[in-house]
């Protein structure tokens, strides 16, 4: 198997999963810093990981915007976020609709893994975004279930990364 894992990570969780995957598969690992899709051409299996930011998967356009170029390859995307992975409506609707247009999901297998967040590590812009979101939702008289969940997530701190979460992805790569 000729595989590569590519990641885009600001706070380290997505990078950690990429390193675990690369160790398990003994495959190449690359950081997505303005990578061109052409660098993926030598590989049969491409695993892309991106942190979730306001439902967007960081840098996933490297895969989703080049599906024709990557035709015939085994394509896998994983996300890293704080929303519990059991929250299927969030991942299967919001995240799917925002990141995967048309029939792209028929060509890409997607996995979701728990990430990490510590307020004192966040950039000024991210800290402000979280505080603003909290203020907006707290001011709502009748928040939706999704808004209540978001409010909880704004107050969540911890490192929830878990190597065992990779089991299904690794099994799929080997299929
Ligand atoms: C500004 C901001 C927005 C975020 N938005 C989401 C989100 O929409 N969904 C989610 O599940 N987690 C969200 N998170 C949590 C991140 O996905 C989590 O910190 C993850 O570990 C980021 O990946 P990284 O550590 O590789 O950068 C957000 C975090 C920040 C700071």
Automatic annotation (TrEMBL):
Entry-linked PANTHER family: PROTOPORPHYRINOGEN IX DEHYDROGENASE [MENAQUINONE] (PTHR38030), PROTOPORPHYRINOGEN IX DEHYDROGENASE [QUINONE] (PTHR38030:SF2)
Tree of life domain: Bacteria
UniProt-listed GO biological process terms: heme biosynthetic process
InterPro entries, alphabetized: Flavodoxin_dom, Flavoprotein-like_sf, Protoporphyrinogen_IX_DH
Lineage: Bacteria, Bacillati, Bacillota, Clostridia, Eubacteriales
Protein name as annotated: Flavodoxin
One protein family per Pfam: Flavodoxin_5
Residues of the Flavodoxin domain: 4-141
Gene3D superfamilies reported in the protein's UniProt record: 3.40.50.360
Organism whose genome encodes this protein: Ructibacterium gallinarum
GO molecular function, one term: menaquinone-dependent protoporphyrinogen oxidase activity
